[in-house]
Amino acid sequence: MGYGDSIDRGVGQDPNELLPELPDVPLGGEAVQIVAGGTVHGDHTCALLRSGGVRCWGTQTWLGYGTQEAIGDDETPEQVGDIPLGGAAIALTASGSNWCALLEDHSLRCWGKDANSGILGYGDIFTLVEYVGDDETPMDMGPVPVGEPVQAVFMGGLRTCVLLDGGRVRCWGNSDGGEIGYGPLVSTLREPPDEDLELGGKVVDLAVGFDHTCALLDSGRVRCWGDASDGQLGLGDPTLERTVSTPIEVELLPECD
After folding, report:
1. Cβ distance 222 to 232 under 8 Å?
2. Cα distances (angstroms) measured from residue 153 to each of 15, 23, 107, 137
3. What gap in Å lies between CA 121 and CA 211, rounded to an integer?
4. Nearest of 204, 214, 222 to residue 166 by alpha carbon
5. Distance set, CA 106 to CA 15, 143, 162, 170, 222 (Å)
6. Which of 19, 131, 200, 246 is most buried, judging by how many CB atoms fall within 10 Å of its CB?
7. Domains in the chain, ordered, with CATH?
8. What's the confidence (pLDDT) of residue 60?
9. Among 1-15, 118-132, 143-157, 179-193, whose mean pLDDT is lowest?
10. Which helix (DSSP H) or strand (DSSP E) does residue 85 occupy?
11. First vs last Cα of the chain: how many Å apart?
């Protein structure tokens, strides 16, 4: 929990009664954003500080410090300090055991467990047992080769998507169910592609789920792609294919004459 001990807190207690009694997690600065997550391999929390520093803690050993040590059990995030990113961060996102930080120069640094899946964007250079952040830092890896300034970054499942100038979107990572949106022949991209997704307009926001993605256009329209098995793409037809590997418009409202 970041308190520098291994004491469980809040188990079986009413959160409304517990929260006023808890001390602040010693971060060493004011937090402006927080992300949390985990897998069967352990749990984590990360905070983006107003200073632009990122501090992570939890049981995982690829938190970005390059030490292979869990953080928060016998030390606090304040004592460990910032993850070496190579610059100040302005945004932070996570999925499972993976993280990306957008730096103030609009470059991207990513780290975590699933490097082999392509979610981190550093290319086809990892085996299944190689991680980023365990024996190297995000600064050591350098910027993810997007090729141009990133305006916003989103992660979900085993993929990463970025919003670029002009409302353009690119995604990479694992796409067994069409989740990265480049068609049925593209199952995995281990580094950022040069090609924008065909979305039919400028994108102002993205929602990246575990196995599907939706884009909000500046026209107010929505386009989604990925797994459609539970109706999450809003297609309204259970007879359609289980996956949609290119963006398709979601009919939100009837057209008015």
Report:
1. no
2. 32, 32, 10, 19
3. 18
4. 204
5. 38, 10, 11, 15, 26
6. 131
7. 15-215 (2.130.10.30)
8. 87
9. 1-15
10. none
11. 56
